[in-house]
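Dear all,

This email documents one entry for the complex benchmark we are building for the journal club exercise. For each entry we list the sequence lines for every component of the assembly. Then comes the predicted three-dimensional structure of the complex as a token string, followed by one or two observations. Please use this as the template for your own entries, and keep the labels exactly as they appear.
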Amino acid sequence: MADSSRIYTAALIVIGDEILSGRTHDKNIAQVATWLGVQGIRLAEVRVVADVTAAIVEAVNTLRARNDYLFTTGGIGPTHDDITVDAVSEAFGVDVIVHPEARAILEGYYETRGGLTDARLRMARVPEGAELIPNRYTGAPGIRFDNVFLMAGVPQITAGMLDALSGTLEGGAPLLSETIGCWVHESEIAELLRETEKTHPNCQIGSYPFWREGKTGANFVIRSVDAEDLAACSRALMAGLEAIDRPAFPGGI
Amino acid sequence: MADSSRIYTAALIVIGDEILSGRTHDKNIAQVATWLGVQGIRLAEVRVVADVTAAIVEAVNTLRARNDYLFTTGGIGPTHDDITVDAVSEAFGVDVIVHPEARAILEGYYETRGGLTDARLRMARVPEGAELIPNRYTGAPGIRFDNVFLMAGVPQITAGMLDALSGTLEGGAPLLSETIGCWVHESEIAELLRETEKTHPNCQIGSYPFWREGKTGANFVIRSVDAEDLAACSRALMAGLEAIDRPAFPGGI
């Protein structure tokens, strides 16, 4: 059962040269972050690393030790640049084996698609002792080993794997948030933000400026695990904005 | 003058709770990565960290030591959650001062916009000894200290700061790339990719599968600092795909 007073954290490692070259825009950070929030788990840190074993091993060992959970995306496909399973096995000091159930899943999936070749069989390799995470799209499963979850790099497939994990991980009280938008330079109300946060110690306020339609505005996101504190802090901030003739837009702009 | 035989690397730290909460989709990783590529500098690693001083200090000190350049985005605005300057100063063990030129820029910018308040003056704070990076949009400059470049979090402003830095950083030979697309399951041609890469040791081949229009395909990105090697490797891969009746699309699908 979830312990609502404890904060559960997770880290994410995005593995792939395609993100570091700028060729592919990452979509997994926001997707994993949002999903974790619903599970009552906070994404505490993210690293994007190259397809280089030593870089993955370093990140895995640092991040799994200081977070409740570690997720990785990318590098579990059939090609030579897919080295996540090998790197995670090395990080834990365990062997890579072919998982019998993963092999059976892939045999079934490829039965009508040209058969299970050596390259495809790579997708059944796991750190010895790992469990599988179902993939309803392409057969090749995700992998859970200890507190580490190896997910696909293709965002749609990652989404399916996250669905399969929903509700299975212990989390704490979800971090609640309210957003208030305002057509204001954030520098005009910096003192108001600071004071409002100080008088509501269970809340954090983030300030996110933007330009739209040639105008400057900002959204203020108030976060708390306590719904009443959150509501009180939001009311205080709205009152503060209105007191200086700056209409506040609940829900953000 | 650039030493074309040496590989120059950079790291990026994306600072901000809004990315880790999933609220904001990061756009700076791809933007900085692409810009660095043009400068002949490789983005070697990225970390996304929370608005927490200790987390920023740890990332700054690790990444600046093992890369030629370190970029940060976010946390240099006027509000209480903007702590990047303080954290970078702490990482280097130097004081935070108000930069006279930054102060003058902000005085000019805010002359007709309500004046330079204490909150706005925060944006003139720099690690002692730092230089400024021009910001043609909102006055508040970016900051260069040693091999660390502090940029805005708002992507349009970051873009302007990158423009201002274009051509000023020493880099090596740019990493060239060619993309070849093919309607093929990457698992079908994993062996071809592995062999082609092995016989072209100056090239790396990345394989990026996708689904579109209900069909499976992949783009193969060949990278090299040598244009001739790159062309030879691309030709070999295209010939290999056509030998198994899989038409190759130069430029990708």
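Observations: The CA atoms of residues 175 and 225 of chain A lie 5 Å apart. Chain A touches chain B through 69 residues (CB under 8 Å).
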